[in-house]
Amino acid sequence: xxxxxxxxxxxxxxxxxxxxxxxxxxxxxxxxxxxxxxxxxxxxxxxxxxxxxxxxxxxxxxxxxxxxxxxxxxxxxxxxxxxxxxxxxxxxxxxxxxxxxxxxxxxxxxxxxxxxxxxxxxxxxxxxxxxxxxxxxxxxxxxxxxxxxxxxxxxxxxxxxxxxxxxxxxxxxxxxxxxxxxxxxxxxxxxxxxxxxxxxxxxxxxxxxxxxxxxxxxxxxxxxxxxxxxxxxxxxxxxxxxxxxxxxxxxxxxxxxxxxxxxxxxxxxxxxxxxxxxxxxxxxxxxxxxxxxxxxxxxxxxxxxxxxxxxxxxxxxxxxxxxxxxxxxxxxx
Length: 333
Ligand SMILES: [Zn+2]
What we know:
Blueprint: H1 2-34, H2 39-77, H3 82-105, E1 113-119, E2 129-132, E3 135-138, H4 139-154, E4 160-164, H5 174-183, E5 188-195, E6 208-210, H6 226-244, E7 260-261, H7 281-288, E8 293-300, H8 304-311, H9 314-332
Parallel strand pairs: 1-4, 1-5, 5-8, 6-7
Antiparallel strand pairs: 2-3, 6-8
Helix pairs in contact: 1-2, 1-3, 2-3, 4-9, 5-7, 6-9
């Protein structure tokens, strides 16, 4: 009887140690993946985790030893009762699980991510305009509604902080919007817009995302690859907006690029690595700062179908924001 019980205890001990190590390795791997942009901090936290992990395992070993002694004593008392011994074994297993589990999982906390949301235009810069039902609808107001709603949805996720480039109806320069993001330690920059057709020949509709055309990567970049981060986020947003019913835009050739628009400057300017600079100021400043930056053109205000289906009420604008938020979170985690 004693031998059987002792064997079980050894098995419990081995299983727990093996599980603990597996979890520790998995946790450290995922922690590293998620925080590769904060390399210096990852090293420190990994050391801390390992030390705490070892302490936790030592504690488990001590606890198991003392539990083993208790069980042996109990066995002497209740040697005749098989049921009592079985119960004791089960109790010991349950007790050990309850005591050890929280210590293994408690230490993994994702670092706070700061996302800068930029409600396009503002003040005298009204953006595109269109009259519907006797009311002049202005892009700057639609952008502001989507952006503030997007902030709310994003901040429902633990560890995500959102800053807005403007908190009211006023304008600020494009370069200052990126500067504000950089000065406030933003990890990502998302500019919120609605579109206007580029030509009178086609009544364009649908969504597109603008991102950098360069793979220039400054040494102080926020992520391992600014270009790849933008691409991931852009594709994720297009896909969520598609699910909502907004197709890829039939303008700027985005039907053939998966909804992604990249434009090179026309004045021959380059990044420090010699690659052609971006046409759009926000993307140029973002890339130079090593800050992943994209511009989301949600739908065409110039298209009545897009307006009625996606832009005409706060609820519809909130649905766009919700899709953006889900896409952003999916692309950065
Ligand atoms: Zn705009």
